[in-house]
Task: inverse folding
């Protein structure tokens, strides 16, 4: 049995000499808007995508709100980086090709590039059974299995297409979970968002295959501002996975995405992420700033489950959250965050309990190696209305070496006396004795580290769709290279 | 008693081995020859250096070898990494086996088996073959099959950890097994399981060095030779009767004799 190598690929060429195996550039001409952010750019993006007036207005409201924020990005996270010059970023970069009407029309250059990344866009290839939306910089370049999905009434398409084809759905739900004024980066995204995926699962439908979006930043000095919206109607089910990589460039690249999930009564959304943006080289040069807002709303008896494996990016700032709005709704957050070299991660979740008998589970595993710094930051909030709410939180940190850091910052706010909260936390180190034990059984120091770290993450990998659990484990291994041994 | 094929090359030859932990010299000149087919018991009072000897042979980084040589099948192993020694067929049953949270015993053992096979120029074992082999070994050493489904030693009792060491030994089929006080802290049933495991493994092709404080385990495993370690040196060697003598008289008479220069 062969394992699908979803995010694996050997390097060809890149600006930096690094071990990052996805660092090559795709040689394709881009349609670039001028650098910098202005009302004209917002209007241009909207025009490029042939958007209706309401959406342009929404973008402009966001842009004006963002101006009021005076470039004051939030500073409460435990990450350090120099101020970002927003006038030095391309806010729109799209491959210079016409939007393909079918898979046959997709530019062979792009097909080859994605194949190199391990994402064959030909249906019935290695990823048979997984529908893929491939997003290159600001544009979706291909979506597979659309016909199969349509038979079940499932809509899986670029959000720009959804704006044209399903405007009512987009207008109803866009910004309903993450409003444009939510936070600095979400506001920025609302003004300039380019592409991303749109998923709609009709009432009572169980989506017949895994859906996956693969995000690739290619253009130098460009930001990626994708927006994803997933709607599961009553009793619907969908499992969705996103993967991401970027070329190894010397300058930092900004990725400020927004993901909104809407799970209506009795629906279930399982959202998995393998985040492998370029982390920078071993001296901390380059790397993606990953500042992401992800949130879902769970209505009555609905369930939203976030699983994330975060190994990439120079800085990760994200808190996939669930608003447990309906009675008996369930929220889950399973996370592995690995930092190596100079990477920084401040990540966690928010579980907001509003409905009665709502339940949430948080299991966060942080691995710090090299000079990396990982922080778990989480909020569990039980509102007065949430009778019988329950939360279980477990935060474990594993240290590899003695120059890294692990931090845990849990916030708990309970306004209902019937709530039950459990919180467990641990910090451990891969001990010399454990390593010797493995060595004595024949393993190299490197393999021993890998085995111990994999064991540490086991509970999380089990939450991933089967096809990707192995991939996640491999991703950890390559991300740790150089940190151990 | 198994007649060792003297005259052939010893499996293990230790000459003038000295080793320290930090500034403290612990082994002060050990000489020992072990042939395939033999079981040697190393006994001695607390702090005599028994466990140090076993761990130095396995290459534990906490100790520094300051002199002497150790030949394993004729090859000097003192400069080799612990994993290379392991792959060559040297096994240490730990006095305090480590817990590896989340690491499945199955995966752990297969990694060990495959490392050896690759070292010997063989293919890795197929999952199916390994499954069958592991199942047979679990039956052979009579350990609870559930233990191999759990993470390595995680939440195991002291006795379960020791039994698990014996299972690992059975699976890895070492040429030389070093048992570092595997008998300590075991109740009589566990002691029997551990002893049965060692006896099962015993063959003309391999050897066992049994480091123990107590004579008790030697009621179940008959050694070819018994050595008494005191203050970093082997001060007495003999047959199984030496162990009985120690059982009767304790270690004081040896200490006195050595300290008096006899």
Result:
């Amino acid at each position: 049995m062969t394992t699908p190598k979803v995010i694996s690929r050997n390097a060809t060429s890149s600006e930096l000499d690094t071990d990052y195996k996805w660092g090559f550039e795709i040689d394709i001409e881009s349609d670039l808007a001028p650098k910098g952010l202005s009302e004209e750019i917002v209007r241009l993006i909207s025009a490029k995508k042939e958007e209706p007036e309401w959406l342009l207005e929404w973008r402009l409201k966001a842009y004006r709100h963002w101006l009021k924020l005076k470039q004051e990005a939030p500073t409460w996270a435990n990450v350090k980086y120099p101020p970002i010059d927003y006038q030095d970023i391309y806010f729109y970069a799209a491959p210079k090709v016409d939007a393909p009407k079918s898979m046959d029309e997709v530019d062979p250059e792009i097909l080859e590039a994605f194949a190199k990344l391990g994402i064959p866009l030909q249906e019935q290839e290695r990823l048979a059974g997984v529908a893929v939306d491939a997003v290159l910089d600001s544009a979706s370049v291909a979506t597979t299995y659309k016909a199969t999905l349509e038979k079940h009434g499932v809509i899986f398409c670029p959000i720009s297409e959804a704006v044209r084809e399903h405007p009512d759905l987009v207008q109803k739900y866009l910004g309903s979970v993450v409003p444009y004024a939510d936070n600095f980066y979400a506001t920025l995204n609302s003004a300039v968002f380019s592409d991303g995926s749109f998923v709609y699962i009709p009432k009572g439908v169980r989506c017949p295959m895994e859906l996956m979006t693969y995000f690739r930043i290619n253009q130098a000095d460009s930001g990626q501002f994708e927006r994803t919206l997933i709607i599961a109607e009553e009793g619907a089910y969908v499992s969705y996975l996103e993967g991401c990589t970027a070329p190894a460039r010397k300058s930092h690249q900004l990725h400020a995405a927004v993901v909104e999930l809407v799970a209506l009564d009795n629906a279930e959304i399982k959202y998995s992420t393998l985040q492998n943006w370029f982390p920078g080289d071993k001296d901390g040069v380059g790397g993606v700033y990953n500042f992401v807002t992800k949130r879902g709303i769970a209505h009555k008896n609905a369930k939203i489950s976030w699983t994330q494996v975060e190994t990439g990016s120079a800085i990760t700032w994200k808190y996939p959250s669930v608003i447990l709005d309906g009675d008996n709704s369930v929220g889950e957050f399973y996370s592995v965050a690995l930092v190596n070299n100079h990477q920084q991660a401040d990540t966690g979740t928010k579980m907001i309990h509003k409905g009665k008998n709502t339940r949430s589970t948080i299991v966060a595993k942080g691995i710090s190696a090299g000079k990396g710094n990982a922080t778990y930051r989480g909020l569990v909030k039980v509102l007065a209305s949430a009778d019988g709410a329950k939360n279980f939180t477990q935060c474990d940190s594993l240290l590899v070496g003695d120059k890294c850091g692990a931090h845990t910052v849990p916030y708990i706010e309970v306004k209902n006396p019937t709530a039950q909260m459990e919180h467990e936390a641990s910090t451990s180190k891969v001990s010399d004795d454990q390593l010797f034990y493995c060595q004595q059984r024949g393993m190299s120091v490197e393999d021993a580290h890998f085995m111990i770290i994999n064991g540490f993450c086991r509970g999380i990998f089990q939450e991933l769709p089967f096809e990707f659990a192995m991939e996640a484990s491999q991703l950890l291994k390559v991300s740790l290279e150089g940190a151990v041994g | 008693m198994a007649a060792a094929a003297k005259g052939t090359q010893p499996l293990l030859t230790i000459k003038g081995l000295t080793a320290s932990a930090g500034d403290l010299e612990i082994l002060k000149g050990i000489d020992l020859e072990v042939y395939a087919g033999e079981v040697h018991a190393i006994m001695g009072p607390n702090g005599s250096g028994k466990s140090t000897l076993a761990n130095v042979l396995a290459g534990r980084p906490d100790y520094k070898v300051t002199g002497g040589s150790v030949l394993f099948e004729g090859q000097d192993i003192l400069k080799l990494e612990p994993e290379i020694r392991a792959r060559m067929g040297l096994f240490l049953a730990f006095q305090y086996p480590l817990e590896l949270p989340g690491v499945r015993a199955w995966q752990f053992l297969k990694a060990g088996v495959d490392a050896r096979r690759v070292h010997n120029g063989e293919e890795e074992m197929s999952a199916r073959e390994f499954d069958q082999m592991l199942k047979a070994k679990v039956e052979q050493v009579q350990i609870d099959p559930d233990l191999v489904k759990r993470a390595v030693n995680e939440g195991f009792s002291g006795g379960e950890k020791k039994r698990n060491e014996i299972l690992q030994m059975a699976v890895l089929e070492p040429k030389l097994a070093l048992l570092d006080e595997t008998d300590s802290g075991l109740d009589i049933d566990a002691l029997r399981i551990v002893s049965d495991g060692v006896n099962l493994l015993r063959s003309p092709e391999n050897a066992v060095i049994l480091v123990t404080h107590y004579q008790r385990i030697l009621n179940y495993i008959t050694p070819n030779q018994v050595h008494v370690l005191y203050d970093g040196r082997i001060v007495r060697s003999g047959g199984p009767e030496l162990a009985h003598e120690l059982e009767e008289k304790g270690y004081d008479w040896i200490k006195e004799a050595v300290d008096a220069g006899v």
Observations:
- Confidence is low (pLDDT under 50) at residues 1-5 of chain B.
- The interface with chain A takes residues 58-62, 81-83, 86-87, 91-92, 94, 97-98, 100-104, 107-109, 111-113, 115-116, 119, 151-152, 168, 172 of chain B (CB under 8 Å).
